[in-house]
Design brief:
The complex is a heterodimer of chains A (about 325) and B (about 270). Chain A has about 325 residues and is an alpha/beta fold. Helices cover about 30% and strands about 30% of the residues of chain A. Chain A is built from 9 helices and 18 strands. Chain A has helices at about 20-35, 45-55, 70-85, 95-110, 220-230, 235-240, 270-275, 295, 305-315, and strands at about 1-5, 10, 15, 35-40, 60-65, 90-95, 115-120, 120-125, 125-135, 140-145, 150-155, 170, 185-190, 205-210, 230-235, 260-265, 280-285, 300-305. In chain A, strand 17 (about 280-285), helix 8 (about 295) and strand 18 (about 300-305) form a beta-alpha-beta unit. The radius of gyration of chain A is 22 Å and the shape is elongated. Chain A starts with a strand and ends in an 8-residue tail after the last helix. Chain B has about 270 residues and is of the alpha/beta class. Helix content of chain B is about 35%, strand content about 30%. Chain B has 9 helices and 15 strands. In chain B, strand 3 and strand 4 (about 25) form a beta hairpin. In chain B, helix 2 (about 65-75) crosses helix 7 (about 195-205) and helix 4 (about 95-110) crosses helix 5. The longest helix of chain B is centred in the N-terminal third of the chain and has 16 residues, at about 35-50. Chain B is globular, with a radius of gyration of 22 Å. The chains are: A alpha/beta (about 325), B alpha/beta (about 270). The interface between A and B is large, with 102 and 84 residues. Strand 10 of chain A pairs antiparallel with strand 14 of chain B, so a sheet runs across the interface. The complex binds flavin-adenine dinucleotide (FAD).
Chain lengths: ~325, ~270
Amino acid sequence: MTAVLVVADHRRGDLRDVSLELLSAGRDLADAAGGDLHVAVISGNVESFAETLNREGVDRIHTVAHGEEFNHDVYVQALTALAADLAPEFIVVPNSVNGLDYAPAVATRLDRPYVSDAVGLDYADGTLEVTREMYGSKVETTADVADGPFAVSIRGGEWPPAEGIGDAEVSEFDVDVDEDAVRSKVKGFEEVGGGDVDISDADFLVSIGRGIEEEENLELVEKLAEVTGATLSSSRPIVDNGWLPKNRQVGQSGKQVTPDVYLAVGISGAVQHVAGMKGADTIIAVNTDPNAPIFDIADYGIVGNLFDVVPALIEAFGGEPPSV
Amino acid sequence: MKVLVTVKEVATVEDDFEISGTEIEERFLDYDLNEWDDYAVEEAVQLAEAGDDVEVVAVTIGPERSEETIRMALAKGADRAVRVWDDAIADVELLDVETKAELLGAVVEAEDPDLVFSGVQANDDSFGATGVALAETVGFEWAAVVNALDTEHVLDEGVASLRRELEGGIEELTDVELPAVLAIQTGINEPRYASLRGIRQAQSKEIDVQSLDDLGVGADDVASSLDVTAMYEPETESEAQYLDGDAGEQAAKLADVLTELGVVGE
Ligand SMILES: Cc1cc2nc3c(=O)[nH]c(=O)nc-3n(C[C@H](O)[C@H](O)[C@H](O)COP(=O)(O)OP(=O)(O)OC[C@H]3O[C@@H](n4cnc5c(N)ncnc54)[C@H](O)[C@@H]3O)c2cc1C
C-alpha cells in the first residue's frame, strides 16, 4: 500500500540536501498513515541518485529517465502518471525553486489541496495538520487540511536528513512523455554574481538590510566595515535596489556564508535570508523590532535603531561616523 | 497583446502585535501592495511601453479596501482593473491556492490574455503557488521565479525567453510558449513610483467588480480546504544574549564582544 510519494530534488548532477530531508518527512507520514514510502527521481543520472536515496525506511524508488535537467512539463507528466499508478495518500515535494515550478501544477492536475512551505506535518485520524509561517515568520499557524489525498511542500532544513542504508526496491517507471505538451525548454544555466569580493571567504561580515532605508545611508555601514576590517554583505532588497552588486547578497538565491561573525543590521531574518547565513559561528543582530525572526537565531541581540547604534560603534573603534 | 497582472493587497504586521484566536488583531495591521506584485506590475507596464498595442489589466481578489491597492497598479500604468469579491469569499478565513486559481482562472477565461504576470509569493500567507496553479487551471504554460524577460522576443515572436533564479546564484535560461503565466521575482526591474498625475487619473478610473455569479463560479468552489486551528508567535529556541542600555552602551558592549571574538584587529 502506498502512503507517501516523495519527489527528489537535484541540479546539475547533484542531489540537493532537501531530498534526504524529504525522506524523513515522508517516512513519518507513512508511519502515521500505515503504508509504504515511495520515492520518485526524475531526470538526470537517476540510477546514481537512486543509490543515494536508498536510505533506511524507503520502500520503493521509481526512476524516470528523461532528459538531464529539470523540466516542469516532464515532471508534471511523470508525477501525474506515477500518482495514477500508486494512488498515494500524500505527495511530498520540496519548497525549492523547482518545487515552486511544478508542485502547484501537479496538485491542481490531480485535484488535491496543496499546502506549501510546511515546517511541520502531523497526521492522525484522517486529518493532516500542517504547520506554516505567515507574515514573514512573525507568526506560526496550524491548519487542518480537509479530505485527502494531499499534496504538500516542505521547507528545507526542517527535517533531519534520512540516514542508514536501505533495501528499497528500485525500478524504472516508464512515462510516455507527450512531447507536444512540453511547451517549455531549458536552454542552459548561468552563474551570476562573480566579481571583486567573495563574501563566502570572509571571517567577519557586516550585513545590511532594508532597515538602511536609503542608498545614501550605506555610507554608514561602509564606514563600520572599514573601521572593523569587515566585509560588507546584504540581504536581497539592497541588491534588488541596485545599491550593492549581486555578489554581496546572502541567502537562498545569493551566497552561502560561514564567517566567524555575522553582524546583521536592519535585517528581519526571512527564511530565504537565513538559509544563507545560519552557518555563521556567531550571529549578532541589530534591529528595532524585538520580534524580528533574526533574533531567534542570534547569539547576541541589540534591540535598537541602527542609526544610533552604528555611529556609536564606529566611534567605539576610533572612527568618525559619516553624517547621514 | 493583452497582459493580465494579478495583484494582492497584503497585510503587514506592526513590530508589536497581539493575536486573538487565529488572527492578528486588526489594529496591528497595515495594508500594502504585495512586494512581488509591484515588480509584476512594473514588468507588465514596461512591456506595454515597449510594444505598440499592449493592454495591461490588473486583477485582484479582495474587499473594497483593496481598491486602494489596485489603484496603485492603475496609477503606475495599468489600463483597467478588475476586483473579484463576494460575500461567499468574505466568509472564508484563509483562501487556499485552489480557490485563488479558480477565481483568477475565471477572469483569465473572460479576458483571454496572452500573458499573465503574478508575483512569486505574497508576503502575508506566502503560499508561493498561485501563479503556477492558475496556469494549470486555465491550461497555460508557465514559469516560476522569473527574474529576467526578453521583452522583444515576447512581443515579436510570442515566446517568453526568460531566466529563472535558482538557489545559490545560478540562473536557468528557459523558453516558454505563450499563452503563459510568469511568476515574477523581485529585482527583475526597478518598480516606478506612481506619478501624481497617474494617481489622479487612477482615482477616476472605474474598477470592474466581479461577483461569483458574474464569473460563473459556484459558492462551493470557494470553500477552503484549509481550516486554521491556531496562530501563535513561534517559540524561540535561541538564547540570544541581549546587549542593553542606550545606543552608546549597546555599542560599547558590542565592541567588546567583537574584540573578544577576535574578529576586529588591533
Ligand atoms: C525565491 C526567493 C528567494 C529569495 N532569496 C533571498 C536571498 O537570497 N537573500 C535574501 O536576503 N532574501 C531573499 N529573498 C527575500 C526574502 O524573502 C526577504 O524579502 C528579504 O530577505 C528581506 O530582506 P530584509 O530583511 O533586508 O528586509 P525586511 O524584511 O524588510 O526587514 C527589514 C528589517 O529592518 C528593521 N529595521 C527597520 N528600520 C531599522 C532601523 N532604523 N534600525 C534597525 N533595524 C531597522 C525592521 O524591523 C525589519 O526587521 C528571497 C525570496 C524568495 C521568494
